[in-house]
Amino acid sequence: MKSLRKKLREKKGFTLIEMIIVIAIIAILIALIAPNLQKFLNTAKQTKADAAAKTLYTATSTYLVDCYANGSPVDTKGKTWTQSTIPADLKKDYFNQNEIKSGVEYEIKFDSAGNIEKVTWKEDGFTGKYPRGEASESESEAS
Fold it and tell me: What pLDDT, on a 0 to 100 scale, did the predictor assign at position 139?
């Protein structure tokens, strides 16, 4: 019994084999997790772009309703607004300036009746659209 205790006290740290096994297990776990992590990050960035497009859609709708209620309707028939053509008071009062950083591109497209047809938001290589338009895509495939 004394010799066993003596051997256990003298043994310090891990052996080389034990360290290699631990490193191999960690490498295998990283190899399994890394692709899923990248997919998760891409999904999150796409969701962020979609949410920003919906927010811009809502802000634009609110702005147009407020203008109409105040007796100063905005002519939007067939027009397209971008960063350079969007009304300054919409950009300043109806949308969070912290979300509009460099590298962000957006576009608000109106139909011939003056209603919002589509909002597009591009950021970090991802494009968010609102409304999403799945129904119109499936209709075009059917014809």
Answer: 35
Ordered by start, the domain boundaries in the chain are 19-142
Dump pLDDT digits (tens) for 52-63: 999 999 999 999
Q: Report helix, strand or coil for 4.
A: helix
The one-character DSSP state at 110 is E
- Pick from 55, 57, 48: nearest CA to 124: 48
Proportion of the chain above pLDDT 70, given as a percent: 88
HSE-CB at 138 with a 13 A cutoff on CA atoms is 4
Q: How many CA atoms lie within 13 A of 38 on its CB side?
A: 5
Do you know the residue count of the chain?
Answer: 143
Residue 19 CA: distances (Å) to CA of 7, 24, 86, 114: 20, 9, 61, 68
Q: How many helices (H) and strands (E) does the chain have?
A: 4, 4
Retrieve residue 142's tokens. 């059917």
Query: With contact defined as beta carbons under 8 Å apart, do 110 and 34 qualify?
Result: no
For the entire predicted model, the pTM comes to: 0.70
Nearest to 49 by CA among 119, 139, 137: 119
DSSP 11: -
Take residue 47 and report the two structure tokens written for it.
């969701």
